[in-house]
Amino acid sequence: MKEVELSVAEAVQEDVGKGIVRIDSNVMKSIGIKPGDFVEIEGKNKTVAIADRAYPADIGLKIIRMDGYMRYNVKAGVGERVKIKKANVKEAQAVTIAPAQKGTYIKRMDTEWVRQMLLGRPLMKGDVITLGGTRRRKRALGEGFDEIFSNIFDPTEMFGISSFGISEIKFMVVNTIPKGAVYVSSSTKINILEKAVELKEEKIPEVTYEDVGGLKDAIEKIREMVELPLKHPEIFDRLGVQPPKGVLLYGPPGTGKTLLAKAVANESDASFITINGPEVMSKWVGEAEKRLRDVFERAEKEAPSVIFIDEIDAIAPKRGETIGEVEHRVVAQLLALMDGMKSRGKVIVIAATNRPDAIDPALRRPGRFDREVEIGVPNRKGRLEILKIHTRNMPLGKDVDLGKIADVTYGFVGADLEMLCKEAAIIALRRVIPDMSKVDSITRETIEKLIVTMDDFKNALKIVRPSALREVFVEKPNISWDMVGGL
Question: Is 482 left (phi over 0), alpha (psi -120 to 50) or beta?
């Protein structure tokens, strides 16, 4: 059976969680498949997906676009090579799934709903999946699978999976009958385990590159500095240079600095250790320095790992401008730890601040924080990407135009846009159910009415203000000439 090697690229928002990959039509012909066929993808692991046509801009690039869950399933990162070939996928008689995140407990989930949300989805044992995307898969699979999509009911696309409280839950395929690659049909029996499966040394991706919007340039810069040393340290040995130690992210609050650091760590399959600046400080002599040493020791034991220091200006201010002895000792300890890191290339320090000029200049020299990346306020294109991410599972009305919302949200950062979407959803809820305190149970008919409209977003815009423009807001005085006397 013919196979071909392709380079992995991020998926577009419309395909996230749907079990669909994008491949050039010419590549499809070379391995004897067409749009809607099942393909087997092999990295360090194997999985299966539905092949769909590549976007015009991707033609000839020899890439395969897949989301973060699929990249996790094949154990391949962005830019790495995977093999693809036509898959032999059988109809599933039974599929058993369980929550994939430790501590998650699910009770009394309707198996019919779950089957509807997985119809047409190709699966293999061990895959991490999310629910939904049935209508998108129906379009991708084409006419040959019309029978399994009869009487389709997909809560994620009809009125939003978020209504059922499981929008962000990730599931693992525990077992399939028959074994191997299967797809879910209308006759497949679905079994759901209530407790999360026990995973040994597995890191389920909480945040992937598809969850970070409007920061494409920043992602590319950080990948060069972080992913390359973590995954391929031998490159730097060949070049005879030391791999970078740290990256400083700076920009206004709410622009996605922490989210970006988590995504990079997850995509690099690295441990993620967080230090919150103010929490390090202590009234006891030597306690703050000990906490820093413990974190760096843990990072070296769990390598490859990413240490993320949030609000670094709180623990490493300019020594000439501080009067406390504790701050001086903490800065000196942080400098010593970064200079003395043994796991060169296997431990990367990412720090974030919105006051880069307040950090001690000794930390900002090459050899400590080798690269500084600005995470600024998103432009119109970035705002549209962020809106698509936060409305991915929302039941949007046909009148909602995310492009128009992106046009009028100048100065909004990622956190503002997330709050805008949440506020619009709450307004829609109040419109359908004016008094929640008097509601004992919610019927399916009521849930079907929960649609977020353009008017809901317009009303939300009256409440949510842009963070980036708060410092220049001017209050309009309510004073007329009639109130001025004696002149």
Answer: alpha
Sequence-ordered list of residues with C-beta below 8 angstroms from that of 366, at least 6 positions apart, any chain: none
Tokens (6 digits) for 230: 């973590």
Mean pLDDT of 186-208: 76
Rounded-to-integer distance, Cα 228 and Cα 35, Å: 33
Is the omega angle on the peptide bond into residue 304 within 30 degrees of 0, that is, cis?
yes
Tokens of 432: 């359908």
State the Cα–Cα distance between residues 233 and 244, nearest whole angstrom.
Answer: 10
Of 218, 230, 134, 125, nearest in space to 171 by CA: 125
Residues with Cβ within 8 Å of residue 422, at least 6 apart in sequence: none
Helix (H) or strand (E) segment spanning residue 383 = helix 380-390
Query: Are the C-beta atoms of 213 and 388 separated by less than 8 Å?
Result: yes
Residues 392-426 as b or e (16 or more Cβ within 10 Å = b): bbbbbeeebebeebbeebebbbbbbbbbbbebbbe
**pLDDT band at residue 158, thresholds of 50, 70 and 90?**
very low
Mark out the alpha helices in 43-103 (DSSP H runs): 68-74
The per-residue b/e assignment along 124-157, b for 16 or more CB within 10 angstroms, e otherwise, is bebbbbbbbbbbbbbebbeeebeebbeeeebbbb
Name the average pLDDT for the chain. Answer: 83
CA distance from start to end of the chain: 93
Domains contained in the chain, CATH given:
3-86 (2.40.40.20), 90-192 (3.10.330.10), 209-374 (3.40.50.300), 380-472 (1.10.8.60)
Residue-wise pLDDT for 159-177, tens only, equals 343 334 455 678 899 999 9
| C-alpha pair distances (Å), 403 with each of 10, 55, 87, 409, 461 | 22, 20, 38, 10, 15
